[in-house]
């Protein structure tokens, strides 16, 4: 099923509709992303790549929110999401869900060893060019606050920190644009 923007805006998915969607083992964590239009656009991105879940953390707004609904064109009703008080909490919960009680990682079809990768999208010390990263699934992408970026606590937990090279005078890209570039690189 493919819906146009107008149809998405008025759609009300049933549990049956949601179960039919084959989702990839891609998770997105918004670490204090404040702009509701960015959050809505991230829902659209998550839908576009069939991500499994978005985690809205800290001060990030959550649905129902008119601005999120407007920017997401209704995908906020189709993409699973959860709230966590911090991005660290979201990462810890995801890691627990991928670990067996005896400590071994859960295996997935996408990544036979079952390793959950945490990838922060951020400029700074220890970051690598996004084109050189390992995006084996299951994978978690973390994007941060529009001004302050991904929190230091989360950067310490990341398996990789990736950045997008900037060739002009501007230092950075919008959080949603950065996520879009990296997400599509990860699914090619």
From TrEMBL:
It holds the Pfam family SpoU_methylase. The keyword Methyltransferase applies. GO terms for biological process: tRNA guanine ribose methylation. GO terms for molecular function: RNA methyltransferase activity; tRNA binding. SUPFAM superfamilies: alpha/beta knot (SSF75217). Keywords: Methyltransferase, RNA-binding, S-adenosyl-L-methionine, Transferase, tRNA processing, tRNA-binding. InterPro entries: Alpha/beta_knot_MTases (IPR029028), SpoU_MeTrfase (IPR001537), TrmH (IPR033671), tRNA_m1G_MTases_N (IPR029026). Residues 26-184 form the tRNA/rRNA methyltransferase SpoU type domain. This is tRNA/rRNA methyltransferase SpoU type domain-containing protein. It comes from Candidatus Curtissbacteria bacterium RIFOXYA1_FULL_41_14. The lineage of its organism: Bacteria, Candidatus Curtissiibacteriota.
